[in-house]
Amino acid sequence: MPDSAAFEYACGQLEARTSLDRLAARGTVRIALKQAGLEARSITREQMAVVLQRILPAELTSRGVEAVEEVCQAILAGLRNVASGPVSETPDAVFKRLGGA
Amino acid sequence: MAIELLVLTSAVAFVAVGAGVGAKLLWLARRTRGFPELVVGFSLFVLAGVAWPLLLFASAPTPPPAPWLRAALAVAAAGMAMGWAGVFLFTWRVFRPTHAWGRALAVAGMAVELAAGLAGVIRAVRLDDALALRSPSPSGFVLLLGALCAYVWTAVESFHYRALLRRRVPLGLADPLVAERFGLWGWTSVFAAGSIAPATWAMVTGGDPNSPLSHLVVGVCGLASSAALYLAFLPPAAYTRYVRESAPAVAPEVGP
Question: CA-to-CA distance for B22 and B36, rounded, in angstroms?
Fold first, then answer.
């Protein structure tokens, strides 16, 4: 299954705006997603925004990336234009409904 | 005597909770037209509300008349097969809908369960000695083995997803109650597997499935499975409040 548009966008922007190469950019985002309990193939635009605000800055700083705040803000701004695409029903959506929560 | 009482209490609890939750989910499916609630509701209802009571009836100390025994075991075999096939279908469609291996595992599991169930129905109808129907059979063994696989798969997927959601909770990306529901569904599966494990093990070893130890395991696991199922899908307000209050608070924003 291909990775989501939000994941691809964030990785592409990170590669373009920092000194990280493709592999390092994708690896860094994947590590951030893992910390957040998210998966590259199913992450939504809204979830990626939270990762960009709360987890990725620390990951980029630890890799010596400069102007982390500006980079994340720029990716965040562009993320709004990323198409959401068809999203299949997630397990948590199903279990939320099953419990009536 | 105490163990027999435990087994009986456990069976009654499973029938009541399983059928109740199954009926609730079927009612939900009627309203939402959702496939997952239809499948899991049907599975729970047919396993707990149909197959289990008939098995209890068929295994009563005084055997029922032959025609009744045959009918009860035939319907129970069909019910168990459909119920456990439904567990495979639910786990595949909810957790691994786009994975080829998930589809292969579910289709294979459903095929095995339905074939074993059909064999059980034929055996119940055609075996000359009706009382011999109360003895273990190869089709029953395959049915139980398939069920164990379904429960193990379901437990692994549920605990994995709970771990993911627990990491999302402090970020405000998941509801703690839903995260714990995955854990409870996983425990329901673990204890359901535990409650059929003694019978399966006895078939493998030729041991006694009615030994005190087997009954103790069945009784404890049956009660635990029912409790987990109840908390997962019919959560009392006190439990809901406890989960929400003990969940980690959403962390303040950092970074840009």
Answer: 12
Token output for B24: 């609730």
Name the residue in chain A with its Cα closest to that of B230.
A99
pLDDT digits (tens, 9 = 90+) for B20-61: 999 999 999 999 999 999 999 999 999 999 999 999 999 888
Interface of B with A in 100-159 (CB under 8 A): none
Which amino acid, residue B18? Answer: G
Cβ neighbours of residue B176 closer than 8 Å, sequence gap 6 or more: B169, B243, B244, B247
Model confidence, pTM: 0.91
Tens-of-pLDDT digits for all 101 residues of chain A? 678 899 999 999 999 999 999 999 999 999 999 999 999 988 999 999 999 999 999 999 999 999 999 999 999 999 988 887 666 789 999 999 999 74
Spell out the domain ranges in chain A: 5-99
Question: Does the distance separating the beta carbons of A94 and B177 come in below 8 Å?
Answer: no
Alpha-carbon distance B206 to nearest alpha carbon in chain A (angstroms):
40
Domain boundaries defined on chain B? 2-246
For residue B104, what is the enclosing H or E element? helix B100-126
Across the interface, of B94, B172, B256, the residue whose CB is closest to A72 is: B256
Q: At the topology level of CATH, where does B2-246 sit?
A: Rhopdopsin 7-helix transmembrane proteins (1.20.1070)
Compute CA distances B49 → A5, A17, B125, B156, B248, whole Å.
45, 60, 22, 26, 38
Among chain A residues, CA nearest to B179: A92
